[in-house]
Amino acid sequence: xxxxxxxxxxxxxxxxxxxIGTGRLVVDHGLEGDAHAGPWxxxxxxxxxxxxxxxxxxxxxxxxxxxxxxxTTVGLDLVSLPIGTKIAIGPDALGEVTQIGKECHxxxxxxxxxxxxxxxxxxxxxxxxxxxxxxxxxEVRVLDE
Length: 145
What we know:
Layout lengths: L1 E8 L8 E2 L2 E5 L3 E2 L12 E5 H9 L13 E4 L11 E4 L3 E8 L8 H6 L4 H4 L1 E7 L1 E4 L3 E4 L3
């Protein structure tokens, strides 16, 4: 089990996201108010704080949301979750892992500063199966099915 340490949105794609503390996950859409939300397989992105820490250890001043992730977690090995895994986020929301990592078509500012970026390798994506409000401090649980 892990926990939510940030809930982040941005008004446009290609921007770092800002921690808003609380957000609503909407079925077949994603995080309400986020530029990446929509009816596709990458509705919500998650990145572990442990991954952010790797970039901090490389000398970068980065924080949750700086990798354009919607939800930053701690205490859960996200990249080990197989596609199709169901995860409960907060008391009500339910998501299904649809993709591990992503292809980075354009090198972001983080890549140019550090020569690497963790989101393409360690970020995961989920589609929302059940609505729910998500806030900092909420549990993130892998469900057995």
